[in-house]
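Hi team,

Below is the intake form for Single-stranded DNA-binding protein from Rudaeicoccus suwonensis. Please confirm the fields before the structure is written into the shared record.

FORM ID: S-0412
PROTEIN: Single-stranded DNA-binding protein
ORGANISM: Rudaeicoccus suwonensis
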Amino acid sequence: MAIKTEPSIKGFIASDPRLTFNDDGQARFYARIGQNHYHREEDGTFTEMEPSFHDLVQFGKGAELSAERFRKGDKFIAQGYVQDYRHMVDEEQRTDEQFVAKRVAHDPNLTTYTVDRRPRAERETPVAERDSATRTAVEQSAVEYDGLGR
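The structure came back. Fields below:
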């Protein structure tokens, strides 16, 4: 069986991320992202070039988790796909690209973090024991969704 692969990108969150919801209640995470670029010189050194900027979106429970976890300046890796979208700019229809993320994580090569390997049940307080009146929608999603589509 062949190895399954999907497109991915790496970069940094260049804007304050936004979480919105459509009329059906589906979450949408949006962030303007930047990607650094370098040019290799003949002597083997690298010259940093101007970064490029793009749109990143994510939908559903993953969007809610990303809104909770990511801030402007964070370095990330995302898996998903590129799609074109149309929108109005200065009263003209324009087509641009956006990266639709299925998964987004902090870049482990550039981010310090701690891995919690306790079983999921030990990491989370059961929903029934929490005061549902004080829980936000994002917290609820984090309890119901472990970031792996489960």
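SUMMARY LINE: Strands lie at 8-13, 18-21, 27-40, 46-59, 75-89, 92-106.

Thanks, M.
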